[in-house]
Design goal:
The protein is an alpha/beta fold. The chain is built from 16 helices and nine strands. The chain has a nine-stranded mixed β-sheet with strand order 2-3-1-4-5-6-7-8-9, with helices on both faces. α2 runs antiparallel to α6 and α4 packs antiparallel against α7. It is elongated, with a radius of gyration of 26 Å. The N and C termini lie far apart (57 Å). The N terminus and C terminus are likely disordered.
């Protein structure tokens, strides 16, 4: 028995207790990092980058991170120091919730596989530390570096997930070809979820429409939506497409080729992943490459330039705005264009013009006018009568997490 206790780590019973406590704290803190992995589209390396930003986000979090590492190092000499690490990784990073609001943890098959792999990795490393007589220090280091271990689990499971995902994607691509709906693809730094909902609402009175559920905006989510919801007779499929890096939207468009593509807005959302807003524009613009019709919010000069390029390339271009054109009428480029939509929200309500003509006015709602303008453009392009669009604008749904990325 004495030999067994000694093998559990220097410090005897105290070393064993510290090893168990800090290992448990590491496993418990891992729940928040699994949520981050899911939110970051399961990209290996993304969890560590996200963790580094959070630990450096405030003096308090930086102090907690320093305490965790100091406790881990000190536990090599004093086993009880590992408890400092346990407290730090449990409390911090302060502000990163255990349960998300806009992106709560969803226990999907992929998440369960990732979680099991991560737990096995952590347990194996800690067990090796125990066998070497360094249980407290190894457990503390592992707990401090849980995001790195989660990234390791992501890398290990990536080949399997690629094979599993390919099967579902191939089935979805085949179903999409069989049903052959008009595909509307929507992206943007913010506003894409709201715009998707508005498009579905405005079109539903005239066409059979399916919209991808909230947060189902990546490869797995869109494949699942198509496989489970796209039925024969569906005339319009509205797909939200998100991106956490260059090439992701281009990959989606290869098997979900859009007929109409929409960019709602460009902003500094996820700027840390892209490095600059110009790279965000380039990544979002991947959605336009295969679409004959594009809808763009041209109040942003960068998207106005994209609209001009698309038009020069022969695309049908809808220009949308949330600003009134200057007087006299016709002095603003595109104001009298058949494919120009303006939506204004003021104290009197929502007012929408298209091609310089009033579509509807004094609509009581709280919708973001730029999103409404894009949705109206899509509905009109799909052949929904203007009168029907005007009527359905008066019952727009309230979108959860409006302006969310």
């Amino acid at each position: 028995m004495t030999a067994l206790v000694a093998a559990l780590g220097h410090g005897g019973a105290l070393g064993w207790l510290c090893t168990v406590v800090v290992a448990g704290a590491g496993l418990a803190s891992g729940v928040r990092w699994l949520r981050v992995a899911q939110r970051e589209h399961y990209v290996a390396g993304s969890v560590s980058r996200f963790a580094l930003r959070w630990w450096r986000s405030s003096p308090l979090n930086a102090a907690l991170a320093t305490s965790a590492l100091a406790g881990a190092v000190a536990s090599g000499f004093v086993p009880g120091a590992a408890l400092v690490c346990a407290v730090a990784v449990t409390v911090g990073p302060v502000g990163l919730r255990w349960r998300g609001t806009s992106a709560p943890l969803v226990l999907t098959r992929r998440l369960r596989t990732l979680g099991a792999t991560w737990v096995v990795l952590e347990v194996m490393v800690v067990a090796a530390g125990v066998a070497l007589g360094a249980g407290p220090v190894v457990a503390a280091l592992v707990a401090s570096c849980t995001p790195v271990v989660v990234d390791g689990a992501l890398a290990l499971t990536a080949p399997l997930e690629g094979l599993v995902g390919r099967r579902f994607v191939d089935r979805a691509a085949q179903r999409l070809r069989q049903v052959a709906p008009t595909v509307v693809a929507i992206t943007g730094s913010y506003g894409k979820t709201s715009t998707k909902g508005y498009v579905g609402h405005l079109v539903a009175g005239a066409r059979t429409v399916v919209t991808s559920p909230a947060s189902f905006n990546n490869r797995a989510g869109l494949a699942r939506t198509i496989n489970e919801q796209l039925v024969p007779g569906t005339e319009v499929f509205v797909a939200e497409m998100g991106t956490f890096g260059p090439g992701e939207i281009a990959d989606l468009c290869r098997w979900v080729p859009p007929d109409i593509s929409v960019i709602t807005a460009i902003g500094p959302v996820h700027l840390e992943r892209f490095g600059s807003e110009e790279r965000i524009v380039a990544a979002k613009s991947e959605i336009l490459a295969r679409a004959p019709v594009v809808v763009l919010m041209v109040d942003d000069p960068r998207l106005a330039a994209v609209a001009d390029r698309c038009e020069a390339d022969g695309n049908v271009v809808w220009r949308c705005s949330a600003r009134l054109a200057p007087e006299p009428a016709g002095t603003h480029r595109g104001e009298a264009d058949e494919r120009h939509v303006v939506a204004i929200l003021d104290a009197g309500g929502l007012t929408v013009w298209t091609a310089g003509r009033l579509l509807t006015s004094e609509v009581a709602c709280t919708a973001q006018p730029s999103n409404v303008a894009c949705a109206v453009a899509v509905a009109l392009e799909l052949g929904v009568p203007a009168a029907e669009v005007a009527t359905r604008l008066r019952s727009l749904p309230v979108a959860a997490h409006r302006l969310e990325a």
